[in-house]
């Protein structure tokens, strides 16, 4: 029987796999990225970079470069410092954290290899690079702090000579009872983990065109960023330009993953260069520059202990996380959020009381680390889930059984984690059951056992996770950052009855515009084709936080929903006047006003628009039609909407070569209301692939003097299609009651647990060989070393 | 990064190209597929005054039989290794290696002559020249000469090709029905340069290996023949003991250099594993 569902109603777009309206345009090469922008009189910037990880600048000779035909400006740190106020990457709610003030270009000391030192602006990028070859900088090399553990040793050289140590931030969590729990535990497991540094590698690199108009004193910046309003604020304040005269436009963006919401020295410099020259200046990072100047992420050493009782019930965890963040903390979101999330998310899926953690964030002479997709989650998840597996094997129970005994029960909500995170409603138990089903777990175990007889070593790994989404001001606002947790939308009915929605969330390829269009069309009762969504321009949309930390759907979507409901009410009010009906007796379906009771067509919405805009004289006196509404929404209620899920992985380890073949990956995820199943699935798959890259391939490797050894796509391995397994996805839907829409985020869920799954699966495969792995990426070298093969 | 400015000359004959090179005072580069040269230019690792485009020199093209030899023009693209019927029949080892060379877009442009002239020790084709006992034809001041692959690779990126000389063709002894080939490599991702790779050509009789040539790549400064391992296997039936002995002999053949990611001992271990797997396959084919 074909029962009608709510999806059979016209314009019921929420919950439907509607294609992204911009996908075809981008596929056809009609995207307009910052790189495509060519402004009249535009010049090009290039940067000379430090070859040393740490050195004093003794002299800079730019005369020959200045003399080169076609060169318009050669600027040093001092030149830009005259017009740019320095910034410091600290936030008040991270008590005691320190970081040095930063300028676009350094005055007297370089602190990582690859740091931009001198800028050249010329008629073309090639010419600017010719000029770079003519610049000579005298350096006096200083001792470089490279290794994370070395940075923490007393007596180590200091990254910032004015500081007293290399510590940026230290914090401690203690719920109490930890020592007692360990003392009385039936089993205690311990492990030390190391997580390599990696970097986002977006398809489109960082790109910026700054255009300062000296006559009007206004600045327009075309910027490949996730967060136009954040940069409007920063450019205004650091260059002393009134906010209203700064316009930031983020056109099509080719991926971001958190990388494009931090202040980069070159980007800030380019704004200064445009001001100094009163001409548009363009800078596009090339791939080699990206590797040494985009943020990196992770780089943690974690010591973990877990206490369990005879049944395998978790009693306590004790954690020490040390993480190295480069020479500065990133501005304006800092570089300590990842570590902070690691220590707060560890153990989060499980029901236990006693938790203690120390976080130590240290400086070193490398490029800054900061927020990158799934901030902290992969570390927290890998540590927790590996400890859970170790404990399960001590107790002698199956990993599924172990988790079933320990996850927070689905009927236990609301509740909180031992670190104080408040959970509204999660679904670990049902997710666990579903995963077991889609993996066909028992069959996999049988197959694994049979293959082991033949010397084929397959591994099965699972990993439970929670994800932080829909952040409230508790995330950045309370720390003093001018980063909004609310969003705004302006919705207009056009004279021909179509809808224009200008909204502060942004699009980097994940389909934000598609889901906003779905929500508006669904709520208003019009075809999605008739809704145009506009994002990414501070001059056009209301102020808002934009897209990061999994907030686009949950917060941006709710903003659009509420705005659409208000616009609908206004339209129906005018319809009521025209039709001599109570607005409450009317509804809009498929662009037509209809009677609620009868479903009878009464009037096209386009006719209301025509009358309101062109024949307002025919409306009752005193009527002022409001066919544009602006609406803001800030999350209230829970400080974060937590989501949850579980992943599984099936792989094969070649114990002779150390190579790992991923055979299949599984995800069961609960992101609340699903607006577009296709986009959610692809977010999960993309996220999983990034996690698999971290698990097996990606690592920024440094030499002893602080040189990045593999800073190109030939040497830094990103996951590619040939090595990726099929990814099977299933969903549980537990909407948040904090919003009408009920959506939470899903953008980081894939990344959060994929590497943990692989770690567990590899260890599962190696277990009969008495070898174990505690570091990612899991390279052939590490596997062979663990197996003692060479 | 953007390349430094350079001039461009489109050569229409080998002599034309060589003369242009001489005129430049040797501050020139020939460009064939450009798949190694163009990245080097963009990174400003190389900045010649002039690029001499050899892509339009007719005589550098084409694959044909020449007596007991298969003559493969220097401009033959990597992708043609996968489709050319003469290569499939008379140089199947090149065909077997080709899918492991980079990705389709690169194979569409990259040339065999370019790969051999560049002599990247991690490249597949240069090592296969050794396994095939191929000869490289070079056009120089004193006319054409042929250099055996064994004498061609001198040191890192250094070959018998002198300044301004052009590789015109590769000559491969035609594959015979009593011969067997095997090729494989260990690469982190499909299309990457391998951590270690190996190709071999055996001449068999009555299930015995009469002679065998085993060539490794990604094991040092030059593609390298495993002569000791060859000696262990030659004249014998390949069985488990032979394989172990051949693996043990690799010690004497290979001395992988220090590298930050793959320590020498690990590379040697991987070479042994690969050799074992290929010889096992060879024993089934022999
Ligand atoms: C992303 C990527 C991945 C790659 N992966 C692999 C791989 O896995 N395995 C592999 O083997 N290769 C790989 N390559 C390299 C590719 O195969 C090159 O095409 C090949 O090495 C050089 O051939 P070419 O025709 O492109 O030479 P070019 O780049 O045009 O020239 C290379 C050098 O050889 C010289 N040269 C070219 N032709 C001649 C000639 N006839 N006579 C004398 N000198 C000549 C040039 O002057 C230049 O110095 C990769 C390349 C890229 C970009």
UniProtKB/TrEMBL annotation, chain B:
Query: Source organism's superkingdom?
Result: Bacteria
Keywords tagged on the record: FAD, Flavoprotein, Oxidoreductase
InterPro entries in the cross-refs: CO_DH_flav_C, CO_DH_flav_C_dom_sf, Diverse_Substr_Oxidored, FAD-bd_PCMH, FAD-bd_PCMH-like_sf, FAD-bd_PCMH_sub1, FAD-bd_PCMH_sub2, Mopterin_DH_FAD-bd
**Residues in FAD-binding PCMH-type domain copies:** 1-177
Name of the featured protein: Xanthine dehydrogenase family protein subunit M
Q: Which organism is it from?
A: Bradyrhizobium aeschynomenes
